[in-house]
Give the backbone structure.
Amino acid sequence: MGKDKIYAVITGDIVKSGKFGREREKALKILKDALNSLSDFRGKSIEGISDIFRGDSFQIVISEPKHALEIAIYLKAELLSNTIKGKSIDARIAIGIGNIESLNRKNLKESDGEAFRLSGNALDNISKYRRFSIKSGIDELNKQLEFISSSIDSITRRWSTEQAEAILLWLKGDTQISISKKLKISQPAVNQRLQLGGHFTLSESFELFKHLLDKNYKL
């Protein structure tokens, strides 16, 4: 891999997948479908997506790291817009920003590099009270990424199924009018769901994330 090329690696796992009991396979199917749907969202920037490993874990390699935060939130929204017998599906997610020394697209577990190590370590060390983390190899940048991580975590932990569903369609580029038609609710109801779902803060977080990566890595 190019030594100076910067990637993002997303590592994640389903939160308390055992709570679904006999419905656990259904939760994993929803995760697999969410991962597959990324090809229609930010497919051009995705270098590889792993199979499910360690029971409920996954990895994604992103060649355009500026899109990593949006992809992570998209996955969150895909999962949280589903429930199984009234139980929400969520994932702990960690984003690592850095170079990649070796990349096996067919088997990401055989890949290695700074981005993989940062992502894996961030997920392993994530607080039990948190479900989102972003780490780079630059200490000063990490202080700013921590602020974004905290904001994202606070927003997504509050999402209802309905808010996650509306945010998901918004991320796909739907207007409030088209969302209202798809969800069969009024436009004011869509606006309320988006506002409660924090879409303005998400937009600002995406822009700040891109700015910080460009400033520190000249992407």
